[in-house]
Design brief:
The complex is a heterodimer of chains A (115) and B (115). Chain A is mainly β and 115 residues long. Chain A contains no helices and 11 strands. In chain A, the strands form 2 sheets. In chain A, strands 2, 4, 5, 9, 10 and 11 form a 6-stranded mixed β-sheet that branches. In chain A, strands 1-3-8-7-6 form a 5-stranded antiparallel β-sheet, with no helix packed on it. Chain A starts with a strand and ends with a strand. Chain B starts with a strand and ends with a strand. Classes of the chains: A mainly beta (115), B mainly beta (115).
């Protein structure tokens, strides 16, 4: 049962433009969301997170938006750079004692930034 | 190094053999997690350790999989009688273990191929 879904397996964007990655979830108990970036042959690298008490979090070129009613979050990268080409994973967790720290991941979106 | 390290980086084994995968978490991190990523899939939670508490083994796919954490630091994931469907990248992560909403830092992974 896939509780976190990234329905776009790939995204191509021109350098300097905005990249928008989408993520949907089904479990209304999720209250913490993260985005990770992964290069080939490396482990995922943390990008940005958001708690369910917020609807937006910004860090430099990266902004995450959370729409709890739609069970949807998105990651905006502005402006996109060639080094942003990677696989991006959305992840979610439930902050209760018996589920402490267990992240549920989406399948990932491959982003390619073209010159 | 300051990051999570895993060994070996690659492992090829024959079906039916046992394998051991090692993870060294970031120094001072009390929480440690194992995930795996099968080809074309997102990361799948396997098990996590938090301090001296009993580990959460709810993600282990079968009783052929086990993990231990010695001295609250290094962890070993053991797969007995490996099967071809066990082929995947096995990723270890660690976190401070102080909050229910905190970043997990990943190692580079062990790529396991079962022939």
């Amino acid at each position: 049962d896939q509780q976190v879904k990234q329905n776009s397996p790939s995204l191509s964007v021109q350098e300097g433009r905005i990249s928008i990655l989408n993520c949907d979830y089904t479990n209304s108990m999720f209250d913490y969301f993260l985005w990770y970036k992964k290069y080939p042959a490396e482990g995922p690298t943390f990008l940005i997170s958001i708690s369910s008490i917020k609807d937006k979090n910004e860090d430099g070129r990266f902004t995450v938006f959370l729409n709890k009613s739609a069970k949807h979050l998105s990651l905006h990268i502005v402006p996109s750079q060639p080094g942003d080409s990677a696989v991006y994973f959305c992840a979610a967790s439930v902050s209760r004692a018996d589920s402490w720290g267990k992240l549920q991941f989406g399948a990932g979106t491959q982003v390619v930034v073209t010159p | 190094g300051a990051g999570v390290s895993q060994s070996p980086s690659n492992k090829v084994t024959e079906k039916g053999k046992d394998v051991e995968l090692r993870c060294d978490p970031i120094s001072g991190h009390t929480a440690l997690y194992w995930y795996r990523q099968s080809l074309g899939q997102g990361l799948e939670f396997l098990i996590y350790f938090q301090g001296n508490s009993a580990p959460d083994k709810s993600g282990l796919p079968s009783d052929r999989f086990s993990a231990e954490r010695t001295g609250g630091s290094v962890s070993t994931l053991t797969i007995q009688r490996t099967q071809q469907e066990d082929s995947a990248v096995y990723l270890c992560a660690s976190s401070l273990g102080q909050s229910k909403q905190e970043t997990q830092y990943f190692g580079p992974g062990t790529r396991l191929l079962v022939l």
